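Run: sequence + LMY7XDAE -> complex structure.
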Amino acid sequence: MSRETLARLLITCPDRPGIVAAVSTFLFNHGANITDLQQHSTDPEGGTFFMRLEFQTPHLDVSRGVLERAFAEAVAERFAMEWRFAYAEEPKKMALLVSRYDHALLEVLWRWSRGELPAKVSMVISNHPDLEPAVRAFGLPYHHVPVSKENKAEAEASILELLEGQADLVVLARYMQILSADFVSRFPHRIINIHHSFLPAFVGASPYRQAYERGVKLIGATAHYVTEELDQGPIIEQDVARVSHRHSVEDLVELGRDLERQVLARAVRWHLEDRIIVHGNKTVVFS
Ligand SMILES: Nc1nc2c(c(=O)[nH]1)N[C@@H](CN(C=O)c1ccc(C(=O)N[C@@H](CCC(=O)O)C(=O)O)cc1)CN2
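>> structure
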């Protein structure tokens, strides 16, 4: 399938009959060929409707701007839609923030380097110098921005300056600093964090220690959009692994690393491929 002519359309609106017909007819009438269509309604009647379409545009009869304006007037207004188009030939710019743990960062960078994650990686920023050689090995810029309780505001200002115009998506690959409300507000539903527990269990710092003390039989990892409130943002992806009384905290940390890597990579890919619709504090993922 040609990426240069691949387009996507995401829709959220009050559910009612005729939505699929109206959207598909609109695209057909403008020369687009729908190649994938997924939808979800929350209730048999009167709920919320979600849809993700992929379509090819080599024979589009108008420009993208004209198409979007026409869609707004002819379809979106009629069905009170929230909607957005995206174009695969315009990969999203992705910046990653990390502290000292390398596993989640290297998983994302390895998959990106193999072409599995359609993004332009603009930089890696860390509050520690440790991972610079590993990042430079991918040919990427690395910025060390030390953070302390005393300089947190200045450090965030420096990070925001680095990210200006350089990030459609910010990935927290085990970045161990709580971001301010102002920082988060700059990237609404565009910061993805990997939390090392099966949320909502064990929010905050040291979730494996919390899990060990609780005697859990499952540990987990959760990728979620970052909001001002710590680890409370819309969940994108999760996974779990069985554990027992035989496992130490160190064992849980080691077992959890693989979960974190896989879960974060899937969440990042789904975001980059425009497969996620956020509705309230939940997501609809058309994986
Ligand atoms: N506004 C938000 N910021 C961050 C979120 C979030 O959901 N909202 N997720 C965290 C990641 N995280 C767990 O996944 C986490 C990171 C850091 C801490 C924490 O207590 N940090 C201390 C400093 C610790 C240190 O210096 O080593 C702090 O910031 O005061 C808890 C949970 C990323 N940010």
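>> summary
The first strand starts at residue 6 and ends at 14. The chain has two domains: 3-87, 92-285.
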